[in-house]
Design a protein that fits this description.
This protein is α/β, with parallel strands linked by helices. The chain is built from 17 helices and nine strands. Helices cover about 55% and strands about 10% of the residues.
């Protein structure tokens, strides 16, 4: 005889406790505690067992992601193939539940989104280039049909390189496919976490994020040193990945260069970290042509060549230069001299703050190698100075400086020399990080 009886609620409750006992052994502790603990069997309706969960978030996750495991456990306890339906507390009565409700199609499912999405950022408007191709492929693979799925994905690079565009395009595509998505930057994550502590709503905060199938977190570098927030982020990542979800992180720096707890650093390093590099000249030209078409302005070839010929530190600066040319064209004021003046202004505005930052970095590197800034940019070939220059070249490149800009800062060396120095510097930096880890 089945343990379930329409006439005896006590038998239904007792059987569900036995199911929970089996599930506690079959799923991870994290999943059991987050999703199954505290659930309660309400009743049996025909062949459907209706079970109460704490929130709608829990129900959505259980009905979509864990239902096969749950129904198997029910069969093992009862010997009957019952269908299980999770409902939020107080949300359903016996009269408003059909015994066999059809699951909604993904396109019709309401999007569960935590945070805010900027869906003007799309994959169609994202310009593929050699410097962003790996990041783009890793992001699109997470929501496509490809077997190539790596998570977490860390996309890093200097400000203005298109990281946020890529992250929001991914989050919007996932949400449109019916995924539950959490899309936050570091400030929003911290603010929500602190508010949850102050208001005593930590459980709601955790459930809203840990039930996401995709977590997108931007500006990771701003969480450096925030122990409580970082610990919460570790638990959030664990809950999502243990449930088969994915995590994508944006950062201005590689995780190894940020003050992160070892637990978080190791989880991020288990995925893939890919740097977004500046456009090459042909890619800059393609970007300018696309942008002018979007703005319905035909820039002359000489203007496109002039802008593309300048090594811009970021996509954002390149966009600003193209906008300046488009505006001049609309005002019938576009001429070589006027465009050159605008490009010079943009270059000065962008490079002025960088000069101070670069000098601070180079002073720190010089101190690390027990030398001076003047010796660092000088011509001496002493081994420790050569190593210091290599690390300096690699570090400046990681901060988005072009080879020409680095060559200028490091005493006017040629680009090929700087390229070789940067390659050696990356090797030295990697060796030191591995030595510290060992």
């Amino acid at each position: 005889m089945s343990m379930f009886s329409m006439s005896q609620q006590r038998d239904v409750s007792r059987a569900w406790q036995a199911v929970l006992g089996r599930l506690e052994l079959e799923v991870t502790t994290q999943n059991f505690t987050t999703w199954l603990k505290g659930t309660k069997a309400l009743r049996l309706e025909g062949e459907t067992l209706v079970v109460e969960a704490r929130t709608a978030f829990n129900c959505d996750w259980l009905n979509q992601r864990l239902i096969v495991v749950v129904q198997r456990a029910v069969y093992q306890v009862t010997g009957e193939e019952y269908r299980v339906l999770f409902v939020p507390k107080g949300a359903a009565s016996e009269d408003d539940l059909s015994p066999t409700p059809a699951a909604p199609e993904p396109a019709a499912r309401a999007r569960a989104v935590v945070g805010s999405l900027n869906c003007s950022y799309t994959f169609e408007r994202y310009v593929p280039a050699e410097g962003n191709r790996l990041a783009l492929e890793c992001a699109t693979a997470l929501i496509g049909d490809s077997d190539f799925r790596i998570s977490p994905v860390v996309v890093y690079g200097s400000p203005g390189m298109g990281k946020s565009h890529l992250l929001h395009a991914l989050a919007c595509r996932a949400a449109n496919q019916g995924w539950s998505v959490a899309c936050l930057n570091a400030e929003e994550f911290t603010s929500r976490y602190m508010n949850a502590i102050r208001r005593g709503t930590m459980e709601d905060f955790q459930l809203s994020l840990r039930s996401a199938r995709l977590l997108v977190l931007d500006d990771l570098q701003y969480l450096a040193g925030k122990k409580g927030t970082l610990d919460e982020l570790v638990h959030t990542i664990d809950a999502i990945t243990n449930a088969g979800g994915h995590v994508v992180v944006g950062s201005e720096r590689h995780p190894s260069e940020i003050d992160l707890p070892e637990r978080l650093a190791s989880r991020l390093s288990a995925g893939i970290a890919t740097r977004i590099e500046p456009f090459a000249m042909a890619e800059r030209r393609d970007f300018i042509e696309r942008l002018s078409r979007d703005l319905r302005v035909a820039l002359p070839s000489w203007a496109i060549d002039r802008i593309a010929g300048v090594e811009m530190p970021s996509v954002r600066v390149l966009q600003g230069a193209a906008h300046a040319a488009v505006t001049l064209q609309r005002l019938n004021q576009l001429a070589p001299a006027r465009l050159d003046l605008e490009l010079t202004r943009i270059s000065i505005a962008e490079c002025a703050p960088a000069i101070s930052v670069d000098r601070t970095l180079l002073d720190a590197i010089a101190s690390r190698f027990e030398t001076t800034f003047e010796e660092l940019i000088g011509r001496s070939r002493k081994p420790h100075l050569s190593a210091a220059r290599a690390v300096a070249a690699a570090t400046l490149q990681q901060h988005g400086r072009s080879l020409s800009a680095i060559a200028s800062v490091l005493g006017g060396r040629d680009r090929s020399t700087i390229s070789q120095l940067a390659d050696r510097g990356r090797t030295l930096i990697t060796a030191e990080v591995e030595a510290r880890a060992g």
